[in-house]
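Exercise 3.2. Students should predict the tertiary structure of the chain below and write it as structure tokens, then compare their answer with the key that follows.

Predict this chain's 3D structure.
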Amino acid sequence: MQEVKNSKGDSAPKNCHFVIKIAVIGVLLATVLGGGTVAAWHYLSPAAGGTGTAAVKVEQTVGSVPDGLKIGIVVSYTDNPAEGRGYDGNAEGISIAKWRLFQAGTNVKTIVVSDQGSDSGAQEAIAKLADANVAGVLAITNGDHTKALTDAAQDANLPIILPYAQSRAEHSTQAWYGMGQKKQHVGAITEALKTLQCSPIISVGNTQLQRQEKVKITPEEIADNDKMGKLIGTSRNACIVITADTKQTVNIISKIKMRSVNAKILVASNAANASFRDMLVDQNVDSRDIYALGTPEATAKTAAAIGFEEAKTLMQTDSK
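Answer key:
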């Protein structure tokens, strides 16, 4: 995906109805997420077999939308893992979403800018999109700088959706978050541990849990076979909760898998980052017994997921 430094030219009317703006962004958003849901725990391991599913439409309709409506896409080209690095991979499905809309007669234009994972970059990104007369913004990033994004979008009177960012207690009324607030994450982790009947609970990193007994260890101690053996013993319900950046999380999981530690693994919301799965594959990590907050289930047979995959196949063979 190429970064667009600036854009001028024909634009959609400024008086587009607010609901239409959000509807179009919502369609793009649904495709970016691969038809899954956010703020829920999902099993990452592929399941064998499965039943058939009724045919679904490849074209995507959203009602009356002005031709050439522009949507701004914000990504973070940065080396900082805490400020959106890797999430640009999640935005690759947008081209398929646009193609599906076009099959139904809706021509949506997208303008991509990078916020560089910083407050100043966020302000500049929104300014570029406002100058380009976009109808709304889809920010495929996460980190503290997202507050600067929403503040700038509010000042520019632009609706903005952040599917991978955590919401704050106070935020713009024109901002929508996909990952909920931090307390919701803590609640989701705690509930998952109860559902899985975890015992013992081993925490790697600064994991917050609600009224849960846990043993805290360092990433280095994962490699200590004697220590891990004593902690887990003969338990078949041991769970390891990891709170770290995406790369660290994958490295810790790799250590656990290499040593055949008998435990379920729960990871934080940064597992929704496209680079998370890519790094698991690159390191040949077995994804069984890994649970992730906000990551759509790989084997989901929903109509949305199937429609996305069919559109992807057809788009690749489309001669237009």
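Discussion points: The CA atoms of residues 95 and 142 lie 21 Å apart. The chain has nine helices and eleven strands.
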